[in-house]
């Protein structure tokens, strides 16, 4: 058909082509739209390796977006996946069962662990570490996140949502819980043999460039809630900075233990921390931002008015997942190919530099790491006292009720 049209145009002129004028007016718009969409979708991951026998902890897998796409691809490659989920209910159980059937991988499991609950995070980490010999762990894939409505200027103010520990929810989910989990899992990560390629992959967001750093109040417990976006971007920024320090500590500790045991000295480069910026996606977070948490605005503004533009300029969850899969599969992060011990930053399926100057400030990163760990421990002690007091009160109420029944 195209050859017939081209032949007609060359031999008889364009006037003989049906609807030529309409095609001439429409074609530039179609080509332009296709070009924009091709650019906005981002590059694809071209690396793949077999993951049979490898064990990964995964958060954010049930998002039905990027997390689910990553989980599906990893399961197809044969990985054993332990999904950390806020609730292990009937829906979550069915989700895992469906994924097993779709991928033919039976080594998929769901564990209860609300990343925003410091007590649940410690319970899970303790259970994971309480094993001898140490359990195999080839990596941790962190894709969980929370982004609250930012409020509509002059119409509504952002409403502060709190975690069970009283922290601002975005700070708890995006930063504090993730930090706590990886910090507690350090013994398991360092215990992996030197020939095991261990990758800690954490999704972040480009909005981190707008964040602030509170060295003396890293959990933002005493900060006024004036902007939801400020808390979100700051949580991502502080997470990235502390992960830079985590990489240094993991590498240094592996070298130190190796030297003390007078074993073959290990470089520690088999453990790699990677921050991944997947791009702007049509995710749950974006829907919440656009709709400001309103079902009416979600249906009208997001689904009808803005969706054509969002489809054109943003990624699907599957396209965002390409960056996580790249960080997981690329040989660039294998020990033999690494030239330094720094945390890596991936965007558009390639390694790029961090934008903020704080990512070069080692002293700041160390202090932020130490202060975050300090404040988490203090908050855990405070919440333990509250839990114990509540338990005693509940037990007393039960005893009084039993006496009354007698």
From TrEMBL:
An example Gene Ontology molecular-function term: oxidoreductase activity
Record keywords, A-Z: Coiled coil, Membrane, Oxidoreductase, Transmembrane, Transmembrane helix
Coiled-coil zones: 362-389
Domain of life per record: Eukaryota
Keyword Transmembrane helix among record annotations: yes
SUPFAM superfamilies: NAD(P)-binding Rossmann-fold domains
Classification via Pfam families: adh_short (PF00106)
TM spans (from-to): 293-313
Family under the similarity heading: Belongs to the short-chain dehydrogenases/reductases (SDR) family.
PANTHER family linked to this entry: RETINOL DEHYDROGENASE, RETINOL DEHYDROGENASE 14
Protein name: Ketoreductase (KR) domain-containing protein
């Amino acid at each position: 058909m195209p050859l017939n049209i081209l032949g007609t145009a060359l031999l008889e002129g364009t006037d003989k082509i049906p609807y030529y004028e309409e095609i001439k007016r429409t074609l530039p718009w179609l080509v332009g739209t296709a070009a924009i969409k091709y650019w906005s979708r981002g590059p694809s991951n071209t690396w793949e390796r077999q993951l049979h026998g490898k064990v990964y902890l995964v958060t954010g897998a049930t998002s039905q977006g990027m997390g689910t796409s990553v989980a599906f691809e990893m399961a197809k490659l044969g990985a054993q996946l332990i999904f950390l989920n806020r609730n292990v209910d009937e829906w979550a159980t069915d989700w895992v069962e469906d994924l097993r059937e779709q991928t033919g991988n039976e080594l998929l499991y769901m564990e209860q662990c609300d990343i925003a609950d410091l007590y649940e995070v410690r319970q899970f980490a303790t259970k994971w570490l309480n094993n001898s010999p140490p359990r195999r762990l080839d990596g941790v894939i962190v894709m969980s996140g929370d982004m609250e409505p930012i409020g509509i200027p002059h119409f509504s103010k952002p409403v502060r949502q709190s975690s069970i520990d009283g922290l601002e929810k975005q700070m708890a989910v995006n930063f504090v819980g993730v930090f706590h989990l990886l910090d507690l899992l350090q013994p398991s990560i360092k215990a992996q043999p030197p020939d095991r390629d261990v990758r800690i992959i954490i999704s972040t967001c480009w909005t981190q460039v707008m964040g602030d750093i509170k060295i003396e109040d890293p959990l933002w417990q005493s900060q006024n809630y004036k902007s939801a976006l400020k808390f979100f971007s700051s949580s991502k920024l502080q997470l990235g900075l502390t992960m830079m320090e985590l990489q240094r500590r993991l590498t240094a500790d592996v070298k130190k233990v190796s030297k003390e045991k007078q074993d073959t000295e290990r470089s520690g480069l088999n453990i790699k921390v990677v921050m991944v910026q997947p791009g702007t996606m049509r995710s749950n977070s974006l829907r919440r931002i656009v709709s400001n948490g309103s079902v009416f605005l979600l249906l009208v503004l997001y689904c009808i008015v803005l969706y054509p533009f969002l489809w054109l300029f943003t990624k699907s969850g599957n396209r965002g997942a390409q960056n996580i899969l790249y960080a997981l599969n690329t040989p660039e992060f294998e020990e033999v190919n690494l030239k330094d011990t720094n945390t890596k930053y991936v965007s558009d399926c390639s390694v790029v530099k961090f934008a903020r100057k704080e990512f070069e400030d080692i002293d700041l990163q160390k202090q932020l790491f130490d202060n975050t760990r300090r404040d988490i421990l203090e908050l855990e002690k405070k919440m333990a006292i509250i839990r114990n007091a509540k338990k005693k009160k509940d037990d007393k109420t039960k005893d009084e009720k039993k006496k009354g029944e007698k």
